[in-house]
């Protein structure tokens, strides 16, 4: 009876929340002429006097937000910008950031949201690939902008808010009308038109500019309202970068689409997080998985539970952090989701089941018929094919790469990148029949019998050692449970004379690390082949601006003392224990003198 009641409750929750999501998404169709700017103007009309943003001591009402956006729209027209042209937005978090891209969208101009930590060639690359007509920068980006000048393919005008590079937007903007520009300026546009560019994180090379249609932007901003139970009474805390989809669309969206308030912070601070939440009466927050670990590792505070936060919205939350986080901080629910900016495979864990990144219940299987999981051959680094050349579906409970059939509706469209070559590399063809095309997520996942999805690892992050497949994600979780380790980033490195790649972990610590205890604990939890051969002790984790771990550079460094100045430990093949790697040890390993 208890199991039956649990099942009924689970399915009732699924029906209630998914119907709520459907109500929000039904108005969004590719051929609709109702655009993002129309959504926001309607919200402004309904909530004009309410706070749209509360930002580090100042407020911006919905009315002021719209007025600022209107000035931006008129300014853009005066600059000669035309519908479909691109403006690069390169700024720190602030209310004006959102108001600028809102204003540009009113006249059909496409903002490109660039990582505000870039400089030099990487920054120029992001500007070049979208052919930006103008660049708008913030107070902290002047030097970075100058460093990119020699790498730019054109010479876009630069306008700054508080900076010293280019023309002053602060001085020019007040000269323009705060009245709404004519709706005719975007007449004839549909939801299929491009609304934004959002860049991939660049963990495996230069960032790529992902196209975001009005349909995709509007859907992303609406999807999480029902699962998080957001209403105009809520305050949503956003301390993640606004150039990233999770904060800039998902987090901003659940607030602005409901008339709620965004409590915005320029940068994430573990020490200020719960204090801000308590003082600003926050009820929901946006996260990237690793910030939850940072908060959990941070010293206890009187603010840990002196808040009314009930729900978190985000992705990348590891199982080992999830329950301790809820228990310590008293948050009732985490709405974990899965999906890339550009992709057509998206899942959502709407009921808070620990460890799952989503669920497809029986009532939604038709909606998600475009999603499949295919077996992956780690040695060939490609999906497994059968004797007829078609991909092999991974059974329930087994790991497979998640892929999404490419179609024409809002759920199945793959809008790709500004670069067609980059787009083509993400498409898998002749998957289950001749001529079909599927989007490759590059992620290995597992689905259980109840339809819950569990992230396993990135394709390429899973490496092969001792004839076995090793998941970097699972090893990292095991390491993170060990006393003394704060963060763990796992990857494979080659060893001369050995097949496959040996495991290596770059860790940060909060004190002395007992390597005998570490090995004992790992041995009790992991098979021998999965225990890292090398461990690098870093002072600080190497991450992107959105707290994703960088692995490419670390893997290239390997365990070479000439490249790695941090302490490196390795499992001595002769003793089976960890010991500090010396230059002599490195030479011995390099000559094939160690049997690992």
Automatic annotation (TrEMBL):
InterPro entries: AMP-bd_C, AMP-bd_C_sf, AMP-binding_CS, AMP-dep_synth/lig_dom, ANL_N_sf. PANTHER family: FATTY ACID TRANSPORT PROTEIN 3, ISOFORM A, LONG-CHAIN FATTY ACID TRANSPORT PROTEIN. Pfam families: AMP-binding, AMP-binding_C. Residues 42-359 form the AMP-dependent synthetase/ligase domain. PROSITE patterns: AMP_BINDING. Residues 474-548 form the AMP-binding enzyme C-terminal domain. Signal peptide: none annotated. Belongs to the ATP-dependent AMP-binding enzyme family. Gene3D superfamilies: 3.30.300.30, N-terminal domain of ligase-like (3.40.50.12780). The chain crosses the membrane at residues 242-264. This is Long-chain-acyl-CoA synthetase. The keyword Transmembrane helix applies. Keywords: ATP-binding, Ligase, Membrane, Nucleotide-binding, Transmembrane, Transmembrane helix.
């Amino acid at each position: 009876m208890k199991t039956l009641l649990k099942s009924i409750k689970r399915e009732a929750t699924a029906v209630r929340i998914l119907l709520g999501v459907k109500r929000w998404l039904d108005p969004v169709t590719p051929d609709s002429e109702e655009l993002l700017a129309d959504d926001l103007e309607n919200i402004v009309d309904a909530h004009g006097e309410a706070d749209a943003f509360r930002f580090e001591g100042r407020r911006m009402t919905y009315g002021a937000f719209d007025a600022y956006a209107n000035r931006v729209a008129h300014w853009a027209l005066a600059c000669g910008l035309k519908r479909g042209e691109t403006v690069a937005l390169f700024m720190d978090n602030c209310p004006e950031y959102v108001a600028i891209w809102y204003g540009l969208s009113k006249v059909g101009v496409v903002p490109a949201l660039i990582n505000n930590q870039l400089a030099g060639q990487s920054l120029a690359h992001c500007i070049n690939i979208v052919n930006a007509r103008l660049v708008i920068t913030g107070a902290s980006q002047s030097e970075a902008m100058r460093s990119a000048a020699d790498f730019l393919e054109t010479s876009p005008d630069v306008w700054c808010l508080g900076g010293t590079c280019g023309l002053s937007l602060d001085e020019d903007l007040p000269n323009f009308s705060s009245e709404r520009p004519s709706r005719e300026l975007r007449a004839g546009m549909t939801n299929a038109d491009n609304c934004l560019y959002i860049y991939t994180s660049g963990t495996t090379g230069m960032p790529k500019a992902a196209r975001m249609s009005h349909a995709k932007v509007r859907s992303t901003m609406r999807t999480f309202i029902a699962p998080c139970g957001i209403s105009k009474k809520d305050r949503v805390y956003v301390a993640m970068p606004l150039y990233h989809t999770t904060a800039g669309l998902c987090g901003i969206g659940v607030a602005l689409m409901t008339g709620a308030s965004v409590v915005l912070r320029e940068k994430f601070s573990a020490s200020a997080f719960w204090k801000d939440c308590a003082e600003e009466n926050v009820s929901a927050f946006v996260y990237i998985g690793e910030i939850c670990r940072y908060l959990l590792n941070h010293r206890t505070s009187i603010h840990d539970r002196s808040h009314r936060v009930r729900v978190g919205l985000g992705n990348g939350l590891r199982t080992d952090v999830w329950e301790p986080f809820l228990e310590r901080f008293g948050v009732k629910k985490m709405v974990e989701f899965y999906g890339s900016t550009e992709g057509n495979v998206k899942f959502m864990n709407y009921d808070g089941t620990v460890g799952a990144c989503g669920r497809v219940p029986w009532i939604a299987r038709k909606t998600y018929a475009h999603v499949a999981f295919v077996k992956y051959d780690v040695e060939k680094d490609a999906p497994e094919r059968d004797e007829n050349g078609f991909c092999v579906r991974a059974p329930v409970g087994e790991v497979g790469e998640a892929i999404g059939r490419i179609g024409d509706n809002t759920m199945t469209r793959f809008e790709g990148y500004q670069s067609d070559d980059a787009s083509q590399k993400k498409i898998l063809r002749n998957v289950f029949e001749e001529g079909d095309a599927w989007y490759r997520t590059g992620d290995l996942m597992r689905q259980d019998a109840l339809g819950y999805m569990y992230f396993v690892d990135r394709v390429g992050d899973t490496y092969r050692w001792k004839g076995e497949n090793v998941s970097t994600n699972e090893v990292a979780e095991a390491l993170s449970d060990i006393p003394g380790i704060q963060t763990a980033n796992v990857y494979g490195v080659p060893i001369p004379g050995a097949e496959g790649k040996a495991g290596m972990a770059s860790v940060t610590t909060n004190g002395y690390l007992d390597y005998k205890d570490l090995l004992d604990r790992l041995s009790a939890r992991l098979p021998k082949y999965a225990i890292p051969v090398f461990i690098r002790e870093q002072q600080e984790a190497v991450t992107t601006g959105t707290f994703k771990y960088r692995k490419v550079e670390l893997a290239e460094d390997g365990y070479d003392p000439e490249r790695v100045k941090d302490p490196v430990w390795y499992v001595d093949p002769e003793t089976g224990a960890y010991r500090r790697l010396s230059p002599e040890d490195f030479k011995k390993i390099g000559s094939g003198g160690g049997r690992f």
